[in-house]
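Project outcomes to date are best conveyed with an example. Our students and postdoctoral researchers have been running inverse folding experiments weekly, and each run begins with a structure described purely in tokens. The record below, which covers 220 residues, was selected by the lab manager from last quarter's runs and is presented without edits.
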């Protein structure tokens, strides 16, 4: 389809309209014709800025992630605390757009976060974290943050203490006791999970895993 010679809308307006539709009507309602209707233009006008739906979705994912504020960092800041704050901001950005969460899973290109990852790597460096653990931490935090937040959205309501619904006390007595003993909300469990992950990775500094034992562990 040919592109119009003069743009009738801006790229940013198209992205904003897409997010609004997804937020209010859900992903099932999203389409290029629906976005065009929202902007009161022809669908062909969208092709001045975006080659196809996938390119628009990628830009939507980028825009959503810019809402995740990167915390300030100064010398002396505890690096683990900083990463907990960053992960919480990432989680909060996703929760502000629950209908768009799957867009991040499918369309978020890592290159949009390269600048943030560079800053993260420098902070790990400053914190004395060995370089060979940087990728483990950065990759793991991204996966944990996205997966746990998506799980919370699917479970709902967010920050409920009902972690595992429909548990039968007679059939699942041990799990029932565990749930009764849990005092953390979903947000608090998220923080505990992040801190536990960071602590576990840092345990490799004092108890390093040999290449051979690691191969055995992962089944290579």
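After processing, the design step wrote out the following sequence:
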């Amino acid at each position: 389809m040919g592109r119009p010679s003069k743009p009738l809308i801006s790229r940013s307006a198209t992205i904003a309209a897409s997010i609004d539709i997804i937020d209010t009507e859900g992903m099932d309602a999203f389409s290029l014709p629906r976005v065009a209707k929202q902007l009161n233009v022809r669908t062909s006008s969208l092709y001045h800025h975006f080659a196809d739906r996938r390119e628009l979705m990628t830009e939507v994912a980028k825009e959503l992630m810019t809402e995740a504020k990167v915390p300030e960092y100064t010398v002396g800041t505890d690096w683990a605390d900083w990463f907990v704050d960053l992960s919480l901001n990432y989680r909060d950005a996703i929760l502000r757009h629950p209908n768009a969460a799957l867009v991040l899973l499918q369309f978020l290109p890592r290159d949009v976060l390269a600048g943030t990852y560079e800053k993260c790597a420098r902070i790990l460096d400053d914190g004395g974290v060995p370089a060979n653990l940087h990728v483990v931490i950065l990759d793991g935090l991204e996966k944990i943050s996205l997966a746990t937040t998506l799980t919370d959205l699917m479970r709902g309501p967010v920050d409920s203490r009902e972690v595992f619904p429909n548990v039968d006390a007679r059939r699942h007595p041990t799990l029932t006791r565990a749930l009764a003993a849990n005092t953390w909300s979903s947000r608090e469990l998220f923080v505990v999970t992040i801190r536990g992950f960071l602590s576990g990775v840092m345990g490799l500094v004092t108890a390093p895993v040999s290449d051979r034992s690691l191969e055995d562990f992962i089944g290579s």
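The chain has two domains: 11-51, 79-218. Residues 22 and 100 are 6 Å apart (CA to CA). The training component of this project remains on track.
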